[in-house]
Design a protein that fits this description.
Number of strands: 11
Helix content: 25-40%
Strand order of the largest sheet: 6-5-2-9
CATH class: Alpha Beta
Structural class: alpha/beta
CATH architecture: Alpha-Beta Complex
Strand content: 15-25%
Largest sheet: 4 strands, parallel
Shape: globular
Order of helices and strands: HHEHHEEEHEHHEEEHHEHEE
Number of helices: 10
Length: 267
Amino acid sequence: MSTFTPFAEKMKSAGVSAAAVNAFSRCYEALVSNHSGMIPETDILPADQVEDWQDITASTPAADKDLISRCVCIKLNGGLGTSMGLQKAKSLLKIKGEDTFLDLIVRQVKHLRSISGTPVRLLLMNSFSTSADTLAYLEKYAADGFADPAQVELMQNRVPKILADGLSPASCPEQPELEWCPPGHGDLYPALLGSGWLDRLLADGVKYAFVSNSDNLGAQLDMNFLRWFAESGAPFVMEVTRRTEADRKGGHLAVRKSDGQLILREG
């Protein structure tokens, strides 16, 4: 019978945090138990009770300086732009003249700082594939404090690749880095916990985290929405929009029939 022990030992010897090991253990257990993870149409209902963004922001006053100072902007920056012809971090793709996604992210955060008068934090969740390129590029913003990895980098964990035959850890002695892969955006929580960043942020008084992909420049921290979220008492809010024919790849909200729970169904 397949056992997780070799994976746990491999991850611990590589310095992977206990939080990440535990998260991967749950995924491995689902794999060996043949849990498909499928959510059939018959088990869900449409999510038709979603609050309207315009109603929220139009009826809610903007957040004050205290609220904004308790925020961190987290950008998920672990993906390579290989599908776009880029062999480095996707956020380094030029999108307007010489400006990259990363340039505009920095400008957005600097703008938030200027209008709020608070040192709004930027935290980039990099992967082992994007860290070096991203930090090297940020050197141009060293004067603004964006180039110090101790202040802006949250490292995504890495997990061992699994052999389809036998479900044991993959081995590639000639290129050991090929034995590992990034676990995806869901790693945000184990990464925050295991890296010590969660404790650091809480100690600094941070209570709210705004999270989006680094290649989604339309996602920004909104002052009115922040106030609404803070007053709602909700632990988590996700912004969604109606899907189009071009959105077949991404996930969508749904309601699980069995308990009425909102879920995110990914394809």
